[in-house]
């Protein structure tokens, strides 16, 4: 089976600083693969190991994607090869899905495309849904379990108040939940092997953005009292109980 | 006259959405995928959905109807099924859906959405010929009132490829955390599911609802998904939020930062949650919680 795993590298939010005017400074933030995208890579690897096949990673991004540490990081987590698509890292869901669809077309298609629950910066939860529609393939989100079943797949999907069991023909586009698996932590061997795996660089033209961003601002901070107690647990509990009784 | 289109797959959510959508236009038209006629809409196009396919299989056909009716604004709610419908029909209409957390103005259409995982709010002016909005819970004030309630049947064919084999209800009580005055949140600081009893006892003493961080609901499945707080979970504004064994990552904080008082118990003095707390206790929850319950 030829499986494609889509992932995005976004600025690590713990390195983003907020200025007094509530604007964000992302210039010092290191690019990091979205934690929910790792579930897609892991699910792809597990399925390929189960039925035989290869896992190709695809990512659309800006300068962050040139970072060889980042490429190795992605490749060490179970990808066999990587396609790096140069493009706007702030692209919206439709732009991103259009670029990914083109890249998948250039690869000559595949049997399955897996995506994460949401990118760590936009978290629109939409790229997979839109990609599936653009490719004209069966598409599902919230996929919590994938089992090979004859020529297709049987998947378990989590909704708010119910779960669905669905039969899906291949090729298909599935967005997985963050609970579908526990992504592996790469070992030394994986990291060394990653350096030897093939990477293809491509560029993609994007359609126009669907909206114009007027501002990006951190929310107003709420003033807090910041009382911090570092006493022995009994004493701390007593102080906290006293505080809670004043409320 | 400005028209708003909604696409609904559930009668209750559909009527609620039709009510909210009134704030966005003069007439609210609905495409109902197996959800019956919506009293809160002015016109419902009734699609009899095939029970052996998921409703999302109608996305391409729905997009065609919307295009032929020259829809300019299409609105859906943020349930998993609506999100998939929204993304798919938006793709067929050549646009990106926007997850609106608020509506700033309708002409021009300007909405807010979360950015950088909840660290910031982006204000966006829609620029495409058709706008597709996924409305977050609370993005528009709930509005009652009925619409004209007209209905017309509409025959649509689903696309092939996905068969619905079985639907099982998810064992989980429905809870409205947004209504709770006090909430106790538990996180990965708890080592085992049985240990949540400590927090449950505390919540009982405080008359609080029990909630959690996302990994507790979606990683280890110790609590139902409707009990997790944050950018992708519930947003609460209680009088008291008490976080136990929660680090306070931004994606979690987004859901609780409007609490009147925030209390945190965490054994790591450097946990980010303390920067957002009114009262913090640096200690092992396994020692503090029993002592706290005893002292209350
Ligand atoms: C796109 C995206 C969306 C997300 N959406 C959400 C969301 O909506 N809601 C959400 O919650 N998360 C969300 N997350 C996940 C979020 O980033 C964090 O991973 C998560 O909130 C961490 O949960 P936690 O605090 O329970 O666990 P951890 O971060 O592992 O923290 C556990 C804490 O417990 C403390 N601890 C350990 N043992 C003890 C002890 N014995 N006594 C006291 N303290 C102890 C530790 O010091 C630590 O601070 C999202 C992530 C992404 C990428
Ligand atoms: N720039 C990108 N390149 C490759 N995959 C992406 C990109 N952006 C999003 N994805 C994938 O689509 C999923 C959903 O992203 P989003 O719709 O932005 O929340 C992510 O979890 C990734 O798997």
* Fourth CATH level, the homologous superfamily of the largest domain in chain B: HUPs
Flag low-confidence runs of chain B. none
Bin the strand percentage of chain B. Answer: 25-35%
- Structural class based on helices, strands and sheet pairing of chain A: alpha/beta
| Total beta strands of chain B | 16
Question: How would you summarize the topology of this molecule?
Answer:
The complex is a heterodimer of chains A (247) and B (296).
Chain A: E1 2-6, E2 9-11, E3 17-18, E4 24-25, E5 31-33, H1 37-51, E6 54-61, H2 68-75, E7 81-86, H3 93-106, E8 112-115, H4 127-135, E9 139-149, E10 152-158, E11 162-168, E12 172-176, H5 188-194, E13 199-203, E14 211-217, E15 227-229, H6 233-246
Parallel strand pairs in A: 1-6, 1-8, 6-7, 7-13, 8-12, 9-12
Antiparallel strand pairs in A: 2-5, 3-4, 9-10, 10-11
Helix pairs in contact in A: 2-5, 3-4
Chain B: E1 3-8, H1 11-21, E2 27-33, E3 43-47, H2 59-68, E4 73-77, H3 80-92, E5 98-100, E6 102-106, E7 109-115, E8 120-126, E9 131-135, E10 150-153, E11 162-169, E12 182-186, H4 196-206, E13 209-212, H5 214-219, E14 240-244, H6 250-253, E15 261-266, E16 279-282, H7 285-295
Parallel strand pairs in B: 1-2, 1-4, 2-3, 3-10, 4-9, 5-9, 12-13, 12-14, 14-15, 15-16
Antiparallel strand pairs in B: 6-7, 7-8
The complex binds flavin-adenine dinucleotide (FAD) and adenosine monophosphate.
């Amino acid at each position: 089976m030829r499986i494609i795993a889509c992932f995005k590298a976004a600025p690590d939010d713990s390195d983003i600083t907020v200025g007094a005017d509530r604007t964000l400074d992302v210039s010092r933030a290191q690019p990091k693969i979205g934690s929910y995208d790792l579930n897609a890579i892991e699910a792809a690897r597990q399925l390929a190991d189960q039925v035989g096949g290869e896992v190709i990673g695809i990512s659309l991004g800006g300068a962050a994607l040139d970072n060889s540490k980042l490429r190795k990081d992605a490749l060490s987590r179970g990808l066999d090869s990587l396609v790096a698509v140069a493009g706007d890292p702030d692209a919206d869901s439709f732009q991103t899905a259009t670029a990914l669809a083109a890249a998948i077309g250039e690869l000559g298609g595949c049997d399955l495309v897996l995506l994460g629950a949401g990118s760590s910066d936009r978290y629109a939860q939409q790229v997979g849904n839109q990609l599936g529609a653009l490719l004209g393939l069966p598409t599902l989100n919230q996929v919590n379990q994938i089992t090979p079943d004859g020529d297709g797949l049987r998947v378990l999907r989590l909704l708010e108040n119910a779960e669905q069991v669905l039969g899906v023909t291949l090729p298909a586009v599935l967005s997985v939940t963050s609970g579908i698996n526990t992504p592996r932590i790469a070992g030394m061997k994986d990291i060394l092997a990653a350096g030897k795996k093939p990477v293809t660089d491509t560029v993609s033209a994007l359609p126009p953005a669907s909206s114009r961003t007027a501002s990006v601002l951190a929310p107003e901070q709420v003033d807090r009292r910041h009382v911090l107690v570092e006493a022995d647990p009994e004493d701390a509990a007593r102080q906290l109980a006293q505080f809670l009784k004043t409320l | 006259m400005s028209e708003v289109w909604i696409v609904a797959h559930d009668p209750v959510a559909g009527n609620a959405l039709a009510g909210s959508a009134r704030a966005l236009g003069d007439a609210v038209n609905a495409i109902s995928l197996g959800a019956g006629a919506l009293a809160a809409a002015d016109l419902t196009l009734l699609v009899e959905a095939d029970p052996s396919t998921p409703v999302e299989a109608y996305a391409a056909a729905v997009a065609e109807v919307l295009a032929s009716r020259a829809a300019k604004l299409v609105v859906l709610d943020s349930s998993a099924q609506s999100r998939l419908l929204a993304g798919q029909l938006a793709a067929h209409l050549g646009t990106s859906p926007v997850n609106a957390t608020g509506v700033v103005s309708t002409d021009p259409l300007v909405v807010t959405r979360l950015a950088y995982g909840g660290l910031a709010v982006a204000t966006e002016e829609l620029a495409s010929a058709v706008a597709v909005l996924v409305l977050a819970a609370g993005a528009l004030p709930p509005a009652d009132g009925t619409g004209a309630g007209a209905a017309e049947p509409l025959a649509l064919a689903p696309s092939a490829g996905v068969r619905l084999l079985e639907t099982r209800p998810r064992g989980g009580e429905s809870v409205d955390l947004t209504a709770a005055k006090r909430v106790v949140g538990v996180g990965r600081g708890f080592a085992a599911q049985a240990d949540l009893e400590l927090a449950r006892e505390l919540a009982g003493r405080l008359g609080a609802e029990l909630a959690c961080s996302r990994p507790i609901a979606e990683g280890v499945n110790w609590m139902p998904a409707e009990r997790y707080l944050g950018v992708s979970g519930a947003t609460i504004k209680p009088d008291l939020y008490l976080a136990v064994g929660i680090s306070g990552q931004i994606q979690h904080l987004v859901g609780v930062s409007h609490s009147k008082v925030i209390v945190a118990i965490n054994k790591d003095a450097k946990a980010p949650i303390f920067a957002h707390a009114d009262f913090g206790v640096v200690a092992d929850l396994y020692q503090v919680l029993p002592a706290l319950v005893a002292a209350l």
